[in-house]
Amino acid sequence: MGVGDTVTIAIPFHRGRDYLRVAIESVLAQASPDWKLLLLDDSGGGDDAEEVAADFGDPRLVVRRNPTNLGMVASWNRCLDLAESDLVTLLHADDRLEPGYVALMQELVRLHRDAAGFFCGARIIDAAGRARFSFADSIKRLFVPGRDDEIVLTGRTGVRALMRGNFIMCPTLCYRKSALAGERFSADWKQVQDLEFTTRLLMDGRTLIGVREEAYAYRRHAQAATSLQSDNLLRFEEEFRLFECVADRADALGWEEVARVSRRKAIVRLHLGYRAAADAMRLRPGRALEKLRFLLRR
Q1: pTM here?
Q2: Per-residue b/e over 140-154, b at no fewer than 16 CB within 10 Å?
Q3: Which residues contact 287 (CB under 8 A, 6 or more apart)?
């Protein structure tokens, strides 16, 4: 393993001690031992992450506590700032890593020393950790460019691919801090900060490298922030706004095709229509109509 290939697994923790234990256990089970675990407690005292961490007694696990509740985006940025290694993954506290995740990221780093970030595929699991079907995630996989196992995203082609369908599962990303050059997630967003960040990196000339291998388990459940914000339309409001912002910047760069794809917002409209249909099937006509009205206004 090359010097500097230690991966810091940073967990920004807000709530859910039981899920947190599973996430920590998944780090301890990594096939590669070259990792550090940073647990950032943003629970505001509601859940004591330090108490959970103490049960494991591993010296590679360090706990830091935010002085006040900072929220998701600020906590993600603080994790990047606090990490002592150049390679950092932001593991969601309700997800888990597959045993080969760290070794896979280290192999990608070895092959692509100049890339800013590395990502992999993800299995979708439910609250109990069982395999779960996700329409949105299944559709997005269809937009992964090419047929090779390795995915290289650069410049206009990379941004266009993500605007067609954001197939990167954000917490699978392992960032190279030195290549980020101080860039961080924008506080202007509450739900789509990941897509804004990756498209911004690509537009600024960075490269992202991915593989299709599923080395991450992403948990979708009713109390997850993504589920709650999709149901109250915040996610879709931000997505429509972000896609317009990307289109405007693409126009400025002379990337006309990227701008056209972004302004169509096809993947966002498809997801919103699916959510409306799902509400109707669950006999929630009010929520279905709300989503349809939102869609027609756009």
Answers
A1: 0.92
A2: beeebbeeeeebebe
A3: 231, 276, 279
Separation CA 288–CA 278 (nearest Å): 8
Per domain, the residue ranges of the chain are: 1-95, 231-297
Do 113 and 31 meet the contact criterion of CB atoms below 8 Å apart?
no
Output the six-digit token pair for 34. Answer: 């070259």
3-state secondary structure at position 63: strand
Other Cβ atoms less than 10 A from the Cβ of 96: the count is 24
Task: Look up residue 124 and give its two tokens.
Answer: 């979708």
Backbone angles phi, psi at 88, to 5 degrees: -140, 130
**Which phi and psi angles does 219 have, rounded to 5°?**
-95, 120
Q: Of the candidates 160, 254, 253, which has an alpha carbon nearest to the alpha carbon of residue 198? A: 160
Place of tokens 């706004």: 241
CA dist., res. 242 & res. 240, Å (int): 6
The CATH superfamily holding the domain 1-95 is Spore Coat Polysaccharide Biosynthesis Protein SpsA; Chain A (3.90.550.10)
Residue type, 5: D
**Structure-derived torsion over alpha carbons of residues 20, 22, 26, 27, reported in degrees to the nearest 10:** 30
Residues 6+ apart with CB under 8 A from 174: 7, 87, 88, 89, 105, 108, 109, 117, 118, 119
Classify 91 as helix, strand or coil.
Answer: coil
Q: Which two tokens stand for residue 164?
A: 């067609």
Residue at 153: amino acid letter: L
Mean pLDDT by 10 residues, the chain (298 residues): 78 92 97 97 80 88 92 97 97 97 98 97 95 88 88 97 96 97 95 97 98 96 59 88 98 98 95 92 92 85
Distance (Å, rounded) from C-alpha 225 to C-alpha 119?
21
Distance of CA 141 to the CA centre of its chain: 15
